[in-house]
Amino acid sequence: MFPQYGQLILKPQLCSLYFHHTVILLLLIDRTGQSETVTPSQTIITLVGEDVILPCHLEPPSDAVSETLEWGRPDLDPRFVHVWYEGQNHLVNQNPSYKGRTSLSTEKLKQGDLSLKLSRVKHSDNGRYRCFFPSEHKESIIELLVGSLSLPTISGININNSRVVLQCESAGWYPEPELLWLDGEGNLLSAGPTETLRGPDDLYTVSSRVTVEKRHKNSFTCRVQQRDMKQSRETHIHVSGDCVAVPHFPADRVSIILAICLILTAAAISVWKWKQNRSKERKRHKAEELLMAESKKSEELQKKDEELKDLGELINILMKQQIDLKEVKKELGDQSNTFASEVENLPKQFLEEDKNTEKDRAKGYMDLKSIIIKSKNKLLQERLAYEEMKTNIERHLISTQQACNKMRNIKTEAEKQKENIILQLSEIQKQKETIHKKSNLESNQETLNI
């Protein structure tokens, strides 16, 4: 709960804002007063990428967990590196470059240890840090020096049979280093001026040359050092009479390098063998798949051949049936025409019979006429029956023609499918030949490697 001031009550949505500004106000007010030193000022040296502790202790020790503590850099805006307020971190106004890289220990705060842990230090972390304890008006100034370094390299340039120019170069230093040449006994050599370049990343590159004589077992050292950081790196080289310059490394370093090389070589061989075995396994699986595909396609091709054969026979049967139906249709047409002609001739026959019977009507004129009429009706019925048969045959002819056309279409599609299967079989054969050639080539290569 926040206290009341007269009739004014702080609203809940203003609580966090009030808390933040209260902390900042307290730090600003306390900063205006006189401060005493918590611990003596000191310089901390570290390298890029390491974790570092910026020391700060209360004297005498006292519990600072429920107090306010500010770690800051006066040259930054905002200046706050890490703020502790009444038992918790208060990082609302923390400088963005320190986000996620600072921490305080609650256990150490109980013992009056206000030290700040800064992780993964960068060149931009170089500067003066202020440890400020407002409740007792105490502060401590810490100078952080973040450096970087690298191993120098030496190369040789022949001048003549007796002298050689050695060049030493080392990059990635901070702060600015110095470069020295030493002989085999550790004495300084007179060398040319050191060239110093500062890159856009504020890192320094130094280089220098020295002219030396070629002698048996003549050795030299290039040393690059940074006095403020008390750090140095050096490389040795032997210059023999035939001007073979070989950098010298300590025996333990050589052993480590050899061990690493052996491990890397063994790992490379293992990876290569694993890849070879994996490649062979993939090719074996591929070959098996191709064999199965080839067998399947061969079966499909055989079935298509049988299907085409059956379709050809069926088409032939339909065509023969079509021819037979046409012949029957023709015969029925001829027969129908015959019946029509006979029906037309019946009246004439009747008249002839009638003339012949006028002499003797007793022979049964009426009976003869009745017989002729019945014959005519019968001929008409037979003609109708033939016409109906002719119509049915025509209908069967149309059905047969349609069936024949359908079978031809099916046969054409089956022939296309057959051609497609043949192409697929050809492609499978090519893939098999390619895999076989690659396998033979790899086997020959392995034999040569052995």
TrEMBL record:
The chain crosses the membrane at residues 254-274. This is Butyrophilin subfamily 1 member A1. GO terms for biological process: regulation of cytokine production; regulation of leukocyte cell-cell adhesion; regulation of T cell activation; T cell activation; T cell receptor signaling pathway. Residues 1-35 form the signal peptide. GO terms for molecular function: signaling receptor binding. It holds the Pfam family V-set. It comes from Oreochromis niloticus. Keywords: Coiled coil, Disulfide bond, Glycoprotein, Immunoglobulin domain, Membrane, Signal, Transmembrane, Transmembrane helix. InterPro entries: BTN3A2-like_Ig-C, Ig-like_dom, Ig-like_dom_sf, Ig-like_fold, Ig_sub, Ig_V-set, IgSF_BTN/MOG. Its main location: membrane. Residues 284-321, 400-431 form a coiled coil. It is found in: Membrane. PANTHER family: BUTYROPHILIN (PTHR24100), ICOS LIGAND (PTHR24100:SF151). Residues 12-131, 152-240 form the Ig-like domain. It comes from the Eukaryota. Belongs to the SKINT family. One of its GO terms (cellular component) is external side of plasma membrane. The lineage of its organism: Eukaryota, Metazoa, Chordata, Craniata, Vertebrata.
